[in-house]
Each structure stands twice: as structure tokens, then as C-alpha cells.
Description:
The structure is a single chain. The chain is of the alpha/beta class. It has helices spanning 35-45, 59-62, 65-71, 148-159, 174-184, 189-203, 213-219, 228-233, 241-253; strands at 4-10, 14-20, 27-30, 51-53, 75-79, 91-93, 98-101, 104-110, 119-123, 128-132, 135-136, 139-140, 166-169, 211-212. Helix 1 runs parallel beside helix 3. It is globular and about 55 Å long. The structure holds zinc ion (ZN) and fe (iii) ion. The site of fe (iii) ion (FE) has 6 residues, from helix 2. Zinc ion binds next to loops.
Amino acid sequence: MPLEIVTIPCLSDNxxxxxxxxxxxxxxxxxxxEAGPIxxxxxxxxxxxxxxxxxxxxxxxxxxxxxxxxxxxxQVIGAKxxxxxxxxxxxxxxxxxxxxxxxxxxxxxxxxxxxxxxxxFHFPKSKxxxxxxxxxxxxxxxxxxxxxxxxxxSLQKLAALPEDTIVCSGHEYTAxxxxxxxxxxxxxxxxxxxxxVITQARSAGKPTxxxxxxxxxxxxxxxxxxxxxxxxxxxxxxxxxxxxxxxVRTRKDNF
Length: 255
Ligand code: ZN
Ligand code: FE
């Protein structure tokens, strides 16, 4: 049985996620933007947290931690490389380490770039990856602490996961990301039709995610920085992938 994934909208545009193992009853929370909606969801489902997985140190991913911990005695797990900036951790993890929820092992992926020490959690049996502010639906996080090559390398690790992997990212930025993506990749038919679906979802007040990695590979301009047709559209035919990624990221920063 795959983990049951629940998306919880928090703050103005954040997402937290629950990953619940029905057999054991264990439940992991990925990121804690604020306590209220998370505690309400757990109460409504009658679930108790056993694990809290933290992706990175930004306040909008950890701000509700103390309040959630006051109600749920869960093991707090975060990056060893960033332990000094994170709240107190019960378990520190690094690239390729394993996190076990119920019967399922998740793998830690270092996806530094947005911050140095940002990690993602991949659960291969359930075909889900929690990417927070690294890979996002039609986008990626702003490169605040790392370098452009570092972020590109992190995205390449995620791009190498199986294409049917479900991508759970940390923010509802998809509509704005779609506008930008169309500005750099207007000839991409898959992107044009995805942008229409996104507009419909948002006007119905629904989350645009999670998406699949296959969708991201076809439509996300940051993952497509290695694609020759996108390079040509940007006037960068034959340029190294890293340079194209840096160009796309810089254009988004100024969009
Ligand atoms: Zn962040
Ligand atoms: Fe964030």
C-alpha cells in the first residue's frame, strides 16, 4: 500500500504534506509553515504524527513547529549540513540517508541551491518526492544561498527520478510560473495546454499540484534548460545547460 498523501494549504501560498501509512498508522508531516491547518487536518483524520520532515530553514517551512510538537510527540528530522540553523533535530540526515515511515523507506536527496542544506525526501515505493523550494510545479526556488550550477545539479538529481514520480512542492506559485514559462517557451504545446488546466484549477480555488515528474520534464522551463529547442528559443543554441539554466533563472528573477 502506498503512503496516503494529503496536501494542506498553509499561510498565503505554502503547502505542508502528510504522508500516512495505513498499515502501521505512522504519519509524517513534511514542513510546518503554520500549526493551525495542520493540527486541524490531523484531528479531522484522527491521525497522530510520528515524524516531521524539514526541508530547509526558511521560516515559512518551520514556523509552526513548536505548536505542532506541543500536541504531537514526533521525531524531527532535518539536514545535518544545516542543523545549526534548523530547530532542534532528533535525527540529522544527509544525501542518500534513509528515513522510514511505516513500512516504507524514503531517501534523502541534497537539493541545495535555494538554500545550502535544502533536502528533498523521495519515497520510491509510493512514487512521491517532497521537493519544497527546489523543484516546483513549472518552476524552481529562487537561488538565494547556492550557485546557479549547484541548483542545476540539484534539479538534475530530481529529473533523474522515475517519470511517474509525484512532485509535492512547497508553494502555490504555479499560475505565475506558467506566465513566465510561456514567455520563454511559447512554442511548447504541452506547456500551453498545461497552462490552461492551471488557470481552470485556480479559478475553481483548487491546488494546481501535485504534478508528475513527466509533466515537469515536458513543461518546466528550468528542467528544460538542457533541451535544444528551448536553447534556440532563447538565442542560446549550443550553450552549456548550466548557462541556459542560469539565464532562465535570471529572467524569472526579473520577470
Ligand atoms: Zn524557502
Ligand atoms: Fe518557501
